[in-house]
Write a structure and sequence with these properties.
By secondary structure, the chain is mainly α. It has 19 helices and 2 strands. The protein has helices at residues 16-38, 40-51, 55-71, 73-80, 85-105, 109-123, 126-137, 143-160, 165-172, 174-195, 208-220, 223-254, 259-287, 291-309, 316-329, 331-342, 349-378, 393-400, 402-416; strands spanning 3-4, 13-14. It has a two-stranded antiparallel sheet. The chain is globular.
Length: 422
C-alpha cells in the first residue's frame, strides 16, 4: 500500500516506510530544539555564577528564545504553505545550531541573549515542520494520534535537555556540552538534507501576496482560532514556566534537594507529557471528540499542580506523582492542533498551525521572566558570598502561583468557549 500525499500532484505517491523515515527525521529536529530550549534549567547555576546575574535576568535570557520563536510562528507557517519542505527544515536547523554554539561561547548577557534569539528563530520551524509533513504523508483520520506522538518525541527531547545533560556538564563543563549539542545538530542537518525531500503543490508566485492575506484573514477572523490558541497557551505555560526553568530551583529550596534529584523530579513532568500525549490523541480519535479530553486535561493539571505548590512537605513519591500528572495534563496543548486542522483548509493549514503554536510558545516569553521578576520582588535582597541573591522557597512559590491560574483559565476556556465543530 502507498499513501497519496495531500499536497502534491495526484500522481505522486510515497511508501509508508519512506513516509515514516521522513517524519522521524523531521521530528528529530523537534527533539533537538526542545533539548536546547530547556537546557537553561540545568545550566542556570553556572549562568548565574559566570555572568553574575539575578533571577530576573536569567528568566530574561532564557525568555529571549521564545521572543523570536513566537514572532516567527506565522511567517514560518506561511513559508511552509508556499515552499518545499527540505530548505524549510535545513536552514532553520542550522540557525539553531549556530545559536547553540554562540551560547556556548557567551561571556555577557548581550551575547547569551543573542544566542537564545538565534536558537528561537531556528527552532520556530520545527513543530510546524513536523505537523506539515505529517499532514502531507499520513491519513487525516490518524492526525490526533500523530500529533500526540510528535509531542511525545518533543517531551523526550526536553527530558534530554535536563537531567541527562548533568553528567556531561560535570565532566566537560556547560560550554563544551553546548558545543557537543551543536555538533549533533550538524549531523542531523546532513541526514535531513539527504533523506527528506518531496514535491508539493504550491501556489503560483503571482498569487503569493493575495494568498497570504487570505490565509491570515481566515485565521484571525475565526473566534475559535483565538479560543483554541488561549487554551494551548495556558496548557503549555506550566511546561515553559516550571519544567523548562523554575521547577528545579523551586524544588531545591522547597524540599532541600540536590540539583540532580530536583532535575529528576522535574523530568517526570516531561515523562508525563510524553506518555499521555499519544494516549490522549488516540482517545480523542477513538471517541471522535476533542472538547472532553481538553476539559479533562485542564482539570487534572489544576488539581495536581495545586498540591505541588502547597507550602507543605509532600512525600517525594507523591510529589513525583503530582509533577507527573501536571505534565500529563499538558497533553491538552498537543490535542489543540487536531482542532486546528479540523477548523482550517489545507491551503492555510501550516499558517494556522503556526498561529496556534505562536500562542503556545509565547507562554515562555511572558511567564519565564515574569515569574523571575515576582521571585525577585519577594526576595529579601540578601546576598551570597559571591554576590548573587539568596532566594528561599516562598520566593519561588510566589512566582509559580501564576501557574495555578493558567490551568484554571484553560479549564474555563475549554468548558465555555471552545466548540467541538466550527
Amino acid at each position: 500500500k502507498r499513501y497519496h500525499m495531500k499536497n502534491t500532484d495526484n500522481l505522486s505517491t510515497i511508501s509508508p516506510r519512506r513516509a515514516i523515515l521522513m517524519f522521524v527525521l523531521v521530528a528529530l529536529f523537534l527533539f533537538y530544539e526542545m533539548a536546547v530550549q530547556v537546557s537553561p534549567s540545568v545550566i542556570s547555576p553556572y549562568l548565574v555564577k559566570d555572568l553574575k546575574i539575578d533571577a530576573f535576568v536569567l528568566g530574561l535570557i532564557s525568555g529571549f528564545y521564545f521572543y523570536t520563536y513566537t514572532l516567527m510562528q506565522i511567517p514560518a507557517g506561511l513559508l511552509y504553505d508556499r515552499f518545499n519542505i527540505r530548505p524549510m527544515i535545513i536552514y532553520p536547523l542550522l540557525f539553531c545550531v549556530a545559536g547553540t554554539f554562540l551560547f556556548g561561547i557567551a561571556n555577557s548577557v548581550f551575547m547569551a541573549s543573542l544566542a537564545r534569539m538565534l536558537m528561537g528563530a531556528g527552532s520556530a520551524f520545527a513543530f510546524i515542520g513536523v505537523l506539515t509533513v505529517a499532514a502531507d504523508v499520513f491519513p487525516k483520520r490518524h492526525f490526533a494520534l500523530v500529533v500526540g506522538l510528535t509531542q511525545m518525541l518533543a517531551a523526550i527531547g526536553a527530558m534530554f535537555g535536563g537531567l541527562p545533560l548533568l553528567p556531561i556538564i560535570h565532566a566537560v563543563g556547560w560550554r563544551d556540552t553546548l558545543f557537543i549539542i551543536a555538533g549533533a545538530g550538524l549531523f542531523l542537518a546532513i541526514f535531513i538534507a539527504y533523506f527528506v525531500n518531496y514535491k508539493r503543490e504550491l501556489p503560483e508566485k503571482k498569487d503569493t501576496v493575495s494568498s497570504i492575506t487570505h490565509s491570515l484573514k481566515s485565521i484571525v477572523k475565526n473566534p475559535q482560532s483565538w479560543f483554541v490558541a488561549v487554551y494551548a497557551c495556558m496548557l503549555w505555560t506550566p511546561m515553559s514556566g516550571f519544567a523548562s526553568l523554575w521547577g528545579i530551583p523551586y524544588l531545591v529550596k522547597a524540599y532541600n534537594l540536590n540539583q540532580s534529584t530536583a532535575a529528576m523530579i522535574v523530568m517526570l513532568m516531561w515523562v508525563g507529557l510524553a506518555i499521555s500525549s499519544p494516549i490522549v490523541g488516540a482517545w480523542s480519535d477513538r471517541i471522535q471528540r476533542r472538547k472532553l479530553p481538553l476539559i479533562v486535561c485542564a482539570l487534572i493539571g489544576l488539581l495536581s499542580f495545586t498540591l505541588v505548590l502547597l507550602p507543605i512537605q509532600l512525600p517525594l513519591i507523591l510529589l513525583g506523582v503530582m509533577v507527573f500528572l501536571a505534565g500529563a495534563a499538558c497533553a491538552g496543548q498537543a490535542l489543540s492542533f487536531a482542532l486546528v486542522r479540523s477548523k482550517n483548509s489545507t491551503k492555510n493549514l501550516s499558517a494556522a498551525i503556526g498561529f496556534n503554536n505562536m500562542a503556545v510558545v509565547i507562554s515562555g516569553a511572558i511567564f519565564q521572566p515574569l515569574i523571575g521578576k515576582i521571585v525577585d520582588v519577594h526576595s529579601s535582597g540578601a546576598l551570597n558570598t559571591d554576590g548573587t541573591k539568596i532566594y528561599v522557597a516562598s520566593d519561588y512559590r510566589s512566582g509559580l502561583v501564576m501557574l495555578f491560574f493558567v490551568y484554571a483559565i484553560g479549564l474555563f476556556v475549554s468548558l465555555f468557549f471552545i466548540k467541538e465543530k466550527s
